[in-house]
């Protein structure tokens, strides 16, 4: 699939916000992901407001690039009991990869921002959104139109030493 080959982490973006429609397409892609026992444990905050992106970039450690991004999706693990609680992190990762590939398909650059297992990031995000449900921040995805027109390009990572075909 072309999108798998050319997806790259993009950290520098044009000054153009994603549309509401684009954000919804990306969230829909996330929600189509598989999840353990089909538990669908995730909650999404999808942002395309400049002032919010700017504030988050200043408040959340490691999220600096969000200041010039055209959008941000934060995936949370809902604060509820889930049938397979040990696998919610993997569920969030599957959803994240779906979003990265859908973004690539739309010509939108994206960057996975690790958040799970980082208390400082999680606390900053929770403090900013003050969600009454206290969902747990798991992954951030910076989004935007790449400044570098060649940003989405194939880098071949196939390594025959790391696979055994039987
Ligand atoms: C679990 C995970 C966490 C990551 N966290 C960050 C991050 O916090 N900041 C960042 O700039 N890139 C982050 N990345 C992106 C990686 O640095 C990137 O995927 C890697 O360097 C390979 O480059 P590519 O995405 O262009 O193929 C993360 C990627 C993964 C899978």
Describe the structure.
With 166 residues, the chain is of the alpha+beta class. The protein has a single domain, classed as NADH Oxidase, CATH 3.40.109.10. The protein is built from five helices and four strands, in the order H-H-E-H-E-H-E-H-E. It has a four-stranded antiparallel β-sheet with strand order 1-2-4-3, with helices on both faces. Helix 2 packs across helix 4. The chain is globular, with a radius of gyration of 16 Å. 37% of the residues are buried. The structure holds flavin mononucleotide. The site of flavin mononucleotide has 8 residues, from strand 3.
How many alpha or pi helices? Answer: 5
Alpha-beta classification: alpha+beta
Q: What is the CATH topology? A: NADH Oxidase
Radius of gyration: 16 Å
In total, the number of strands is 4
Query: End-to-end distance, in Å?
Result: 24 Å
Q: Give the biggest beta sheet.
A: 4 strands, antiparallel
CATH class: Alpha Beta
Broad shape:
globular
Question: What is the fourth-level CATH superfamily?
Answer: NADH Oxidase
Helical content band:
25-40%
The bound ligands are: flavin mononucleotide
CATH architecture classification: 3-Layer(aba) Sandwich
- Count of discrete structural domains: 1
Order of strands in the sheet with most strands? 1-2-4-3
Order of helices and strands: HHEHEHEHE
Overall pLDDT, averaged?
A: 98
Uncertain residue ranges: none
Percent of sequence in beta strands: 15-25%
């Amino acid at each position: 699939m072309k999108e798998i080959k050319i997806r790259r982490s993009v950290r520098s973006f044009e000054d153009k916000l994603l549309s509401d429609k684009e954000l919804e397409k990306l969230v829909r892609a996330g929600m189509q992901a598989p999840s353990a026992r089909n538990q669908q444990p995730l909650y999404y905050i999808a942002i395309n407001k400049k002032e919010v992106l700017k504030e988050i970039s200043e408040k959340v450690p490691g999220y600096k690039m969000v200041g010039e991004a055209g959008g941000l999706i934060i995936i949370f693990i809902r604060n509820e009991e889930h049938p397979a609680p040990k696998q919610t992190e993997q569920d969030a990762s599957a959803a994240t990869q779906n979003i990265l590939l859908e973004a690539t398909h739309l010509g939108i650059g994206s960057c996975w921002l690790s958040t799970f297992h980082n208390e400082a990031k999680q606390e900053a995000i929770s403090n900013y959104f003050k969600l009454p449900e206290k969902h747990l921040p798991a992954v951030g995805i910076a989004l935007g139109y790449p400044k570098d027109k060649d940003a989405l390009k194939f880098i071949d990572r196939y390594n025959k030493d790391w696979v055994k075909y039987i």
